[in-house]
Amino acid sequence: MALGACTALALHLMQPYLPSELPALGLALAASGLGSLLPDIDSGEATVRQLTGTARGGGCLGWAVSLGMHALGGHRALTHTVFVAALLAYAASTLHRPWLIAFAAGYIAHIAADMLTRGGVSLFWPLSRQRIHWLPRGLTFRTGSWPEVLIVLAVLEATAYAYAAPVIGAPGLFTSWHR
């Protein structure tokens, strides 16, 4: 969720789109968090499935959702494809709703982050089941491991710096986009 929110905030620094009113800003950041969780709806034990009561052990509904997700390619298949990401990006750029832009940013950030892991992503499913990775095999890591925690902390730190830099008079990360 933190990665999704940071992605939405970084995107806002490059091209301001987030509302300044607190309720609307909160909605957009919550949407980015939800967007960063939703790709894992295809995993029986994912946070989003547990929050919605559709986890694998969640009775008939959990069983039905798991069966449906398995029919759609299983974990890191349909919900992790370039096709779904492109559809969300298109909808966000066409409809110009801050919450939808933030949702798409969180969703796409999740897919990009999963490409750093050992499992990779079937980015072009159903055309190809090949798992795509950003890193060479020896540098990938397991989800939830210390390298993932370090990456999330680095992204949080960079986002905090990008927002604080103009306030404290330090050179900003995205100063060329501000006018």
Overview features:
56% helix; 7 helices; 179 residues; single chain; mainly alpha
Structural account:
The chain has 179 residues and is mostly helical. The protein is built from seven helices and no strands.
Radius of gyration from the alpha-carbon trace, in angstroms: 17 Å
Uncertain ranges: none
Helix content: 55-70%
Q: What is the string of helix and strand elements? A: HHHHHHH
Overall, the morphology is globular
Set down the secondary structure blueprint.
Layout (H helix, E strand, L loop, with lengths): L1 H13 L7 H16 L9 H5 L7 H13 L10 H14 L2 H17 L31 H23 L11
Helix pairs in contact: 1-2, 1-6, 1-7, 2-6, 5-6
Please summarize what this structure is.
The protein is an all-alpha fold and 179 residues long. Helices cover 56% and strands 0% of the residues.
